[in-house]
Amino acid sequence: MSEKTIIVIGSGTAALSFASSLPPSYQVTVITKKNVKNSNSHYAQGGIAASYAKEDSIESHVNDTLYAGCGHNDVTAVRELLKSGKKIINQLIVSQFPFDVDSYGEVSLGKEGAHSIRRILHAGGDATGRILVDFLLQRLSGRIQIIEHETALDLLIEHGRCAGVAVKDAEGSVSYRRSDYVVLAAGGCGNLYQHHTNDSAITGDGIALAYRAGAEITDMEFTQFHPTLLIKNGAAYGLISEAVRGEGGCLTDLSGRRIMAGRHPLEDLAPRDVVSRAIHEEMMRNNPISMDCSRISGFEKRFPTITGICQAAGIDISDGIPVAPGMHFLMGGVKVNTWGETAVPDLYAIGETACTGLHGANRLASNSLLEALVSGQRAAEHIIQKPANGRLKKASAERDIIFQVPDIQLQELQARMTNAAGIVREKEQLQALEKWLSDAFVHHINMKEITIEQAELSFLWQAAKLVTVSALLREESRGAHFRSDFPQTEEQWRGKQIIHSKSETVIRKNEGIWKQWTFCS
Ligand code: SIN
To answer: Fumarate reductase/succinate dehydrogenase flavoprotein-like C-terminal domain spans which residues (predicted)?
Structure first.
């Protein structure tokens, strides 16, 4: 019997977790736009959240996730993902993953925003993502094919099923890769905004590919802005992890006033959306904010990556680190079921590309690497138990694929998204943005002619339209989606998802969404 053939688009934690959960006999090809290490996972500083401590429990982790998610999480998905995540963490420990330990040799646990207990496992201080990617790659060594500098341009849909992908290499040659299954693990769309924490390769590809192929895209209005990027003279230098606040860092203005005091009971460790809005509000009043790290001893040892970022920016940490919010994570994405299946047969989505229901309207800190590990493993388990579909036997047909490339500049797109679809949104600005996006002059370019930059702009433009329309439709504020003209969380919106497909946009009630939600962060 021939073994299953799978193409994975993307090379972050979700992709590698997926590949390492399959039998070695499967033919897995990971294609990635740049180097195999260019992914958002690589930059993840915070760590992996899991109810590891004796005094912790899955239920407590579930409650914190639901609290941060503002009543928009799928409670069944949350419980299942966190339960499976705990098992994966234990497996990583058994496999000697080098989690940081304390002086007694016990796994050390950090704290981040909206967690009621210390439950963040980290490695290399603030280099968890990089170390995890290296670990998974080493485990996969020789077992899978990794193709770098290749961009997925379009999914091949045959008889309503996904049968492979059309790709372009760095020399501009187009080819058609066929497979039994395609797995999208291409991250979110961080490059839609001026300041962000994402790799430059993260341009909404997974979302746009899935949308073009006929999948459902949901929750695009929920874009998470991390409160603290090091931003100096208008340039972003990198993330200042929430773990810094977990260890005693606090946000102050020039006078030394702690800006989170009195704003939220959890102060500096309030959920991310709350802290981002507070900083944004201060900045609108021309009040620059910095991270006071004076209460953290041994900063350089605990946060070596951040120390390097500060050095690169010429910042003396003892003077405070200048910070401002930036786009970090897309809670929405390709709508999937518990196994990562999309609405298109044989097409899966995992990691940030997918919307599993775990994060709701605002992701709890350090739940994303956990989700990447679990969603990768689950999709693999599902594919393993499916009968082979023999798709590969068919010949690859040449196709004439046409792209719509807007005649706009990336910088202008980013500026307009930041202003109108950023931390604070409002109807007229969103309407103007939507009009600008849909009125853009469009070039129709054949796949053979299109450059990678044009393809990326086309993907980002598609993602921008989905974010903007969703943000316009959701006339309430919830989690990371804040409308100044509808500042309250509205009961009538509870449990409702805005779902886009090529044929229509619908607002659908999701019965799985947490019904007992009674408070707002
Ligand atoms: C951080 O270190 O603050 C980011 C971690 C995360 O996004 O979960």
So the answer is: 411-501
